[in-house]
Each structure stands twice: as C-alpha cells, then as structure tokens.
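Dear Dr. L.,

I hope this message finds you well. Following up on our conversation about the binding site, I have prepared a predicted three-dimensional model of the protein together with MRU. For your records, I am including the exact sequence and ligand specification that went into the calculation, followed by the structure tokens. Please feel free to forward this to your student if that is useful.
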Amino acid sequence: MRTVEWDYENNHLQLIDQRLLPGEFRILRIEDSQQAGMAIRDMVVRGAPAIGAAAGFGMALAGMRSKANTVVELIAELNQAAEELKSARPTAVNLKWAVDRLIKTVHDSEGDDPERLRIDILRAAQQIADEDVAINMRMARHGADLIHDGDTIIHHCNTGALAAVDWGTALGVIRMAHQDGKKIHILVDETRPRLQGSRLTAWELEQYGIPYDIIPDNAAGYYLQTGAAQKVLFGADRVAANGDVANKIGTYKLALAAFDNSVPAYCVAPTSTIDRDTARGDMIPIEDRPQAEVLALTFEGRPAAPENASARNPAFDITPERLVTAIVTENGIAFPPYLTSLSGLFG
Ligand code: MRU
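The resulting structure of the complex is given below.
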C-alpha cells in the first residue's frame, strides 16, 4: 500500500504508523484534521513529501467532517484547519506548499454548494498524492544516471517510499539504479536520535533486495576518507532559492566530509521542496524536537544518559550550497550556480 492513502470506502485517511517500524507494520486510521495534525507532529508520518500529502488529505477531512451548511462557513473552517496543519512541523516546506495549494483550490472553486466544494478538496488532495508518485519516478530516472555500477553510497535519514506517498526521493534514485541492474552497496547512516536510517531505510532496502550496512552517523567521515564510498545521497525538507539545503540533522557534517574528500554529494528533492520565497538557508526555521527523543536512547538495555541529564535536539541542519554537487528534481538536475539553475527548473 501507499504510505499515505485515502480509503474511499470508509472516507478516512490511512497512514503506515512509522513509529512502530521495523518491528510492527500497522495502519492507522485518521478520522479528522486534528488527528492528521497530530500524526504529523508525532511522526506517525514523516518525510517532507509524505507530510505534504497527509496534510492535503487532512484538509479533505476538515471539509468532510465540517457541519457547515454554506460555502462561506465551510471556507472559514478550512482556513482554520489550514493554519493548524501548517503549524504541525515548521521546516518541511511541502506541508505549507500542499495546504496552500488546497486553499487555492477552495478560493478558485465556484458556486455555492458546500457539498461540491468538499468533493473538489478531496479530488485536489488525491491529485497531490498521485502527482507525488509520478514525480518521484521522474526524479529517480534522472538521478539513477548519476550512479555507477559498483558504487558504494552513503545515505542519510529515510528518503524512501515511507518518506513520500510511494517510491521516494534519494532512496528512489537508489532503487532505480538497482532496477537498472547496477551493483550498488548502501551505507545507511543510522540517523540519531530517531533512527530513521536503521529503522526505516534498512527495512525498505531489505524489501528491495539492495545490499546495505548500517553505520553509526559518525563513521561516515571515515568511509569517505578511506575511499570506501563514491557517492553521498540525501533528500531535503526545504531548499532555499540559492541552493542551501535544510535536511535531517547530520546532513551538513556528512556533506562537509564528502566535500573534503572530493566525493559528490547529491540532494534529491521535488520542486515542491524548493522554496523560492526563502533566499538563503539561514532564513529556514529549524524544528526543535523534545529532549526526550535523545535521552530515551538506551545502551544494552540500560539508560544511555544520567537521570538528570538535559539534551538539545535540533531536527534539521543547513548544508550550504557550496557543498552540494547537484540537486536532482523531477524537471532535471540543477548544478551550481543554483540561483539560476533552480529557477530555470520552474520554466
Ligand atoms: O524528521 P523527518 O523524519 O521528517 O525528516 C525527514 C528527512 O529529513 C528527509 O531526509 C527529508 O524529508 C527528505 S526525503 C523525503
């Protein structure tokens, strides 16, 4: 099934509960827009494109569960739901992008029939989800040409089918290269503290039959320095107009080590992740997650920190554009200088 899917029989949203993987595969039913917001905040669903698609269906739920009898009342409730959904996670721009796209649908829609508007919103949300899969396939096709037979690739976080509606971004490229028959090996950054690499990426790679090893995040520099890895691949939660990339914490250090060892570092992200209204990476809001995510880690079944320890937990960092070799999108591959190459992708 898709990571984010509408159940047309029962009119609710279905999400794969990513908090439980790899131990348990469970589908969570989401019945209203508040639950959709909570699922995004609690990371039942995570990864920039998946969050965008889930928020789109969250808007559809807001429309469907509303008791409004007029279009004016319905629009007021949809605006409120839009603000709540957008506040669920601040860094991934796909969330804002998807919700704003649905609000535009609402304002473009004509007539005074609230029922009609409800149908239009669901149709627009479904379109975002369907487009996401098609876009990921196109990105994967462009990106796979950058991968060589025999490459060992360091991959950060989870950027696969679980981070999108299906197929994925950077992991989608890896999947396509594997399907093309290239023999590749993946070094999976475990991605502390939530372990999206070892819990989710490794789980996906097993299903695709792609050989991998999980590595501690801080081992990546060693493998790059010793020539054991030929490529670095990651996704993005937001790309600024100048090409700076906001992505999962640790991406910056990984890209620095790749740069120092002349290993190409590719970012794979759809154009919906490119925020042309944000000039530079330092203008992107970085989400602070609860310290409990860091302190809850255990070592050999015992607490990994003193009882009264405090922690800091920024969820993302900014990789300056000078460290990014290229940005792979569905409309082609952008190379530096990004200010012009990225805007060229929008025609
Ligand atoms: O905090 P998460 O798990 O939502 O972070 C996800 C990432 O950082 C991904 O690398 C990013 O969304 C791009 S891949 C779709």
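In brief: The longest helix spans residues 114-144.

With kind regards,
A. P.
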